[in-house]
């Protein structure tokens, strides 16, 4: 079982850590691709944007992490065939902060 981390606010070529095949599997919604200035959001809004843009992706297959009130990363779990899979172990560790800073894209 595999896990990929989507790094929001990173340069496009650095959006994913993990297998080179996985980035093609996840569509990044336009609202998360280009952030002109710091925004306020929460984990549920980011999860909704990603699940809406990715058929088959459910909120129990991803988690938004945060540090110091800022979005840190999005973790998405895959099966070996690159289909999305539920992964409670990361979902439970997701960010619970109600208001997060989503930094501007460089």
Describe this structure in words.
The chain is of the alpha+beta class. It has one domain (2-102). The chain is 18% helix and 26% strand. It contains three helices and six strands; from the N terminus they run E-E-H-E-H-E-E-H-E. The strands form two sheets. A four-stranded antiparallel β-sheet has the order 2-1-5-4, with helices on one face. A two-stranded antiparallel ribbon has the order 3-6. A hairpin with a 2-residue loop joins strand 4 and strand 5. The longest helix is centred in the middle third of the chain and has 11 residues, at 43-53. The chain is globular and about 35 Å long.
User: Widest sheet: strand order?
Assistant: 2-1-5-4
Whole-number count of domains:
1
* Poorly predicted residue ranges: 9-16
Sheet with the most strands, sense and barrel status: 4 strands, antiparallel
- The SS-based structural class is alpha+beta
Helicity level: 10-25%
Instruction: Write down the Rg.
Output: 13 Å
H/E element order: EEHEHEEHE
Mean residue pLDDT: 79
- Beta percentage is 25-35%
Gross geometry: globular
| Annotation field: number of helices | 3
Distance between the termini: 32 Å
Would you report the number of β strands?
A: 6
């Amino acid at each position: 079982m595999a896990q990929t981390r989507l790094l929001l606010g990173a340069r496009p070529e650095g959006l994913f850590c993990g297998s080179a095949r996985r980035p093609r599997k996840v569509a990044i919604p336009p609202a998360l691709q280009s952030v002109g200035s710091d925004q306020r959001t929460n984990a549920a809004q980011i999860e909704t944007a990603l699940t809406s843009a990715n058929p088959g992706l459910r909120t129990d297959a991803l988690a938004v992490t945060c540090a110091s009130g800022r979005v840190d990363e999005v973790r998405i779990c895959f099966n070996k065939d690159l289909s999305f899979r539920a992964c409670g172990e990361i979902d439970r560790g997701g960010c619970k902060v109600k208001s997060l800073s989503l930094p501007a894209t460089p």
